[in-house]
């Protein structure tokens, strides 16, 4: 499969401070790729480099077959959509006027406005002034703004932060639909459930370095102890190694009807990150 | 450059301008000054007073308007969204300049009509007024890009107004003909326009053109700074 993003030996420094150190990864076309890491790990710097907002100190960066030196070209900008911590809206204008501006800037048909407002669950709010809307609604308009021109590749920096659970589900469905239609999605998130649910592959970034990269389920399996966690009918909690010597004990518990629940160890992505770095993903 | 994108930014900024009371009040200042001056007495107004109105219009409407619009885009982080879009910096600046230009034109025409002066309806003064507009516009773009918040613009607009908009007022400071301040001020754009008006000198227009080039260099440096935050 062709790569949408190719990053090799990426390094970024701000004066003496190293923000990103020898980062290499590829994102395949049509993939949902998650970059996970705590605040200050270098996620936003990476997105800024991939979108041309920052220039790398060293390393090769190619996005949609475009070299980083050409990221300011109109052709490149037309093919990507960005929702970052820098994204903002014109507060005095209506939702429709904000999206109309970006439709015209991206040469997209105005009919797209109603389609995208439907997808972010804001169709009934199209004529409302942005300043009157809640933070969550503004976040959804920003997402609509990033997607209104049907980009080939979307960069989403914490796309569901500030959203209530109902709207998170709605947005997740929208992103999955978008991805099924062929759009590549590069996202950063703190929400491990979101990453597990949406991402085909994730990379853990800490101190500017990639600590691990892979499919969420495979990573969870790789870092599992494979122990059995058993809860008995007496509310006793047992942890038994996945070893043949424990087979009789497990069989006896089941035979005696004493097992309330039994499951093998499957860490969350947050647990995996904790194992790798000793840090919580917050 | 792309006319559709310029048009989109013009349409957006026109709507924003109409909903921003601070910006809407700016074109009223020169009109108000013109009404006051027109009631000062019989006969023609001195040339320096006419240029005081021109300076007030350009500093209060052109520079201040542009500066406020750019500073607001910076403050609200919306400029980044425009820069990330396929619109070029030229598209963005031309779209905004057209809005500021429209309001400057309306304010200037009404002000001069109130004063009943038609001396500006000649080739040389019109060329001078266009150059002067470009000077104040570029100054507004440059300072606007450099300024991080709308609140900060007031700290910059005052020096611009007094130095470049109200330069003829230096006469009222009674500094004396030989004062170095007067000699320097004589080379300022508005003073050169007054000189052009009185002597029909193209040299004065040339000096104003040099001011435009200097403002363009200043704006270019500010643009380079804002286009990436490396």
UniProtKB/TrEMBL annotation, chain A:
Subcellular location: Cell membrane
InterPro entries tied to this protein: AAA+_ATPase (IPR003593), ABC_transporter-like_ATP-bd (IPR003439), ABC_transporter-like_CS (IPR017871), ABC_transporter_ATP-binding (IPR050763), P-loop_NTPase (IPR027417)
GO molecular function, one term: ATP hydrolysis activity
Alphabetized Pfam families for the sequence: ABC_tran
Gene3D superfamilies: P-loop containing nucleotide triphosphate hydrolases
Annotated keywords: ATP-binding, Cell membrane, Membrane, Nucleotide-binding, Translocase, Transport
The keyword Membrane is annotated on this UniProt entry: yes
UniProt keyword annotation of ATP-binding present: yes
Gene Ontology cellular-component terms listed: plasma membrane
Domain ABC transporter intervals: 5-232
Protein name, UniProt field: ABC transporter ATP-binding protein
Organism listed in the record: Allobacillus salarius
UniProtKB/TrEMBL annotation, chain B:
Name under which the protein is recorded: ABC transporter permease
Entry GO CC: membrane
Segments traversing the membrane: 21-37, 49-71, 92-115, 121-146, 153-170, 201-223
Segments forming a coiled coil: none
Source taxonomy: Bacteria, Bacillati, Bacillota, Bacilli, Bacillales
Subcellular location: Membrane
Membrane topology, from the record: Multi-pass membrane protein
Keywords: Membrane, Transmembrane, Transmembrane helix
InterPro entries: ABC2_TM (IPR013525)
Molecular function GO labels: ABC-type transporter activity
Annotated ABC-2 type transporter transmembrane domain residues: 53-221
Major subcellular location class: membrane
């Amino acid at each position: 499969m062709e790569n949408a993003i190719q990053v090799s030996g990426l390094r970024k420094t701000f004066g003496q401070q190293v923000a990103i150190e020898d980062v290499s990864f590829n994102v395949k076309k049509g993939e949902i790729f998650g970059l996970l890491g705590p605040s200050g790990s270098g996620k936003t710097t990476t997105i800024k480099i991939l979108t041309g907002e920052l220039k790398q100190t060293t390393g090769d960066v190619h996005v949609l077959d475009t070299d980083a030196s050409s990221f300011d070209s109109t052709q490149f900008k037309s093919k990507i959509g960005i929702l970052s911590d820098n994204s903002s809206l014109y507060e005095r204008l209506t939702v429709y006027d904000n999206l109309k501006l970006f439709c015209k800037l991206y040469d997209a048909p105005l009919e797209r406005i109603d389609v995208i407002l439907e997808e972010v669950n804001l169709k009934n709010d199209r004529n409302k002034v942005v300043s009157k809307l809640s933070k969550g609604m503004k976040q959804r308009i920003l997402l609509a703004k990033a997607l209104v021109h049907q980009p080939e590749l979307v960069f989403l920096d914490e796309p569901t932060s500030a959203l209530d659970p109902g709207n998170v589900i709605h947005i997740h469905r929208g992103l999955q639909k978008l991805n099924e239609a062929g759009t590549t999605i590069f996202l950063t998130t703190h929400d491990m459930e979101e990453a597990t649910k949406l991402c085909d592959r994730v990379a853990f970034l800490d101190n500017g370095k990639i600590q691990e990269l892979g499919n969420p389920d495979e990573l969870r399996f790789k870092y599992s102890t494979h122990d059995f966690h058993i809860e008995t009918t007496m509310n006793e909690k047992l942890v038994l190694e996945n070893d043949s010597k424990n087979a009789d004990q497990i069989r006896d518990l089941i035979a005696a009807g004493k097992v309330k629940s039994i499951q093998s160890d499957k860490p969350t992505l947050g647990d995996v990150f904790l194992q790798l770095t000793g840090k919580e993903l917050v | 450059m792309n006319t559709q994108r310029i048009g989109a930014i013009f349409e957006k900024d026109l709507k924003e301008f109409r909903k921003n009371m601070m910006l809407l009040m700016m074109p009223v200042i020169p009109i108000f000054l013109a009404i006051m001056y027109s009631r000062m007495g019989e006969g023609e107004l001195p040339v320096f007073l006419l240029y005081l109105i021109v300076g007030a219009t350009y500093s209060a409407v052109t520079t201040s308007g542009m500066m406020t619009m750019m500073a607001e885009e910076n403050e609200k982080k919306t400029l980044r969204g425009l820069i990330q879009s396929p619109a070029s910096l030229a598209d963005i600046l031309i779209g905004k300049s057209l809005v500021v230009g429209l309001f400057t034109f309306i304010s200037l025409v009404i002000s001069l009509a109130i004063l009943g002066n038609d001396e500006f309806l000649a080739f040389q003064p019109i060329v001078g007024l266009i150059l002067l507009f470009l000077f104040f516009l570029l100054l507004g773009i440059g300072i606007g890009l450099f300024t991080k918040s709308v609140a900060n613009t007031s700290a910059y607009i005052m020096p611009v107004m007094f130095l470049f908009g109200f330069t003829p007022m230096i006469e009222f400071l009674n500094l004396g003909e030989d004062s170095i301040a007067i000699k320097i001020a004589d080379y300022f754009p508005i003073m050169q326009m007054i000189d052009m008006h009185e002597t029909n000198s193209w040299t004065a227009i040339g000096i104003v053109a040099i001011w435009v080039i200097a403002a363009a260099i200043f704006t270019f440096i500010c643009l380079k700074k804002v286009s990436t935050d490396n």
